[in-house]
Amino acid sequence: MTLRNDISDIVLSEEKIISLAKSLGEKITEDYKDKNPLLVGLLKGSIMFMGDLIKYIDTHVEIDFMDVSSYSGTKSSGDVKIIKDLNQSVEDRHILFVEDIIDTGQTLNAIIDLIEYRKAASVEIVTLLDKPANRKVDVDVKYVGTEIPDGFVVGYGLDFDEKYRNLPYIGLLKPEIYQ
């Protein structure tokens, strides 16, 4: 039994993911040259994408991480908890959140409000995946890798019950696995 047996369809191949990371990295390089942005990865899902993305950003950047939670099983509870906050001040910094997927928008909206309250110079978002079908809160996303339809996706950092993060691609998890 392999992890691949739990996947109904591959949504994004490893090659397509790298192509998207490269394209996004080039846009970010152009927009942030001479700004020394702080890239903030939201743990744990963003680690693989962030690791690939920063390879294609050809300007000075700093990185930090936040660990936030709002999920219970496969659904967002809407109750955002900060498990690990940033290690440095965001005041007068250009902040670029790095996300694996934007689903309801609730978690990101709450975190953006907090960072703006802390007086960041600017706050933008880069996400590999955008799933607007589930959006509950309007979130302005400047950099989007690709839009995906509704469905529970795993792999490349995305998980179900802390499993499947290690897949090198993104796939649709078979419903019988999570229902």
Automatic annotation (TrEMBL):
Reaction(s) this enzyme catalyzes, per UniProt: IMP + diphosphate = hypoxanthine + 5-phospho-alpha-D-ribose 1-diphosphate; GMP + diphosphate = guanine + 5-phospho-alpha-D-ribose 1-diphosphate
Listed GO CC annotations? cytosol
CDD domains linked: PRTases_typeI
Task: Give the EC number.
Answer: 2.4.2.8
Assign the protein's first listed, main location to one coarse class: cytoplasm
What cofactor does this protein call for?
Mg(2+)
Start and end residues of each Phosphoribosyltransferase domain:
12-160
GO molecular function term, any single one: nucleotide binding
Listed A to Z, the keywords are: Cytoplasm, Glycosyltransferase, Magnesium, Metal-binding, Nucleotide-binding, Purine salvage, Transferase
Q: Which Gene3D superfamilies match?
A: 3.40.50.2020
**What highest taxon heads this organism's lineage?**
Bacteria
Pathway stated in the Swiss-Prot or TrEMBL entry: Purine metabolism; GMP biosynthesis via salvage pathway; GMP from guanine: step 1/1; Purine metabolism; IMP biosynthesis via salvage pathway; IMP from hypoxanthine: step 1/1
Q: Which Gene Ontology BP annotations are present?
A: GMP salvage; guanine salvage; hypoxanthine metabolic process; IMP salvage; purine ribonucleoside salvage
Q: Where in the cell is it found?
A: Cytoplasm
The family classification in the record reads: Belongs to the purine/pyrimidine phosphoribosyltransferase family.
NCBIfam families for this protein: HGPRTase
> Which PANTHER family does UniProt cross-reference here?
HYPOXANTHINE PHOSPHORIBOSYLTRANSFERASE, HYPOXANTHINE-GUANINE PHOSPHORIBOSYLTRANSFERASE
Q: What does this protein do?
A: Purine salvage pathway enzyme that catalyzes the transfer of the ribosyl-5-phosphate group from 5-phospho-alpha-D-ribose 1-diphosphate (PRPP) to the N9 position of the 6-oxopurines hypoxanthine and guanine to form the corresponding ribonucleotides IMP (inosine 5'-monophosphate) and GMP (guanosine 5'-monophosphate), with the release of PPi.
Name it: Hypoxanthine phosphoribosyltransferase
Naturally occurring in which organism (per UniProt) = Aliicoccus persicus
